[in-house]
Amino acid sequence: MTDGMKQYRRVLKRKLRCSWGVRKRLLEKFDDAAFSYLENEPTPALAEVTEAFGPPEEMARTLMEEVTPKEAAAYKRGVVLRIVIAGILVASVIAATLWIWCWKEVGVTITPYYYEVMPDGSTVPVYPSIPDADTVLDQGH
Q1: Residues 49, 5 contacting (CB under 8 angstroms)
Q2: How far apart, in Å, are the Cα atoms of 81 and each of 71, 75, 85?
């Protein structure tokens, strides 16, 4: 294939909104027409290819007419699934970042208390105390 045909095919490939298997099938159909065209015009420029086949957007629309509703629905489901997975990943990264920042940097405890074992073997919850402002200022913090 010539540079003009490669450029046209690259743009056409980007314009086809379908799964890779369907896209491959549609591009093979285009390639059959392109090879017939290349027999008559061995080194066409991009403008000549566009003149012969029309803009890549129109060619993509023409090729997409062969996509069945089932194939189109499967592609849309895949897109939605990828968006959901990306959202979950972003939320997980944000949650992990906030947890690490709060736990490591600020010193926020995850549990608000711990248990102290008494001499008789029983346990009593002990809540952390919050230092008052005078104590913190006296320590120089």
Answers
A1: yes
A2: 15, 10, 6
Question: Please, where are the H alpha helices in the chain?
Answer: 3-15, 20-40, 46-53, 56-64, 69-100, 133-139
* pTM score: 0.59
Give Cβ neighbours of residue 19 (< 8 Å, ≥ 6 apart): 71, 74, 75, 78
| pLDDT tens-digit profile, the chain (141 residues) | 678 899 999 999 999 999 999 999 999 999 998 998 888 888 889 999 999 999 999 999 999 999 999 999 999 999 999 999 999 999 999 999 888 877 666 665 555 466 778 889 888 777 666 656 555 555 554
Both tokens assigned to 130: 């919050």
Closest to 31 in 3D by CA, of 59, 61, 58: 59
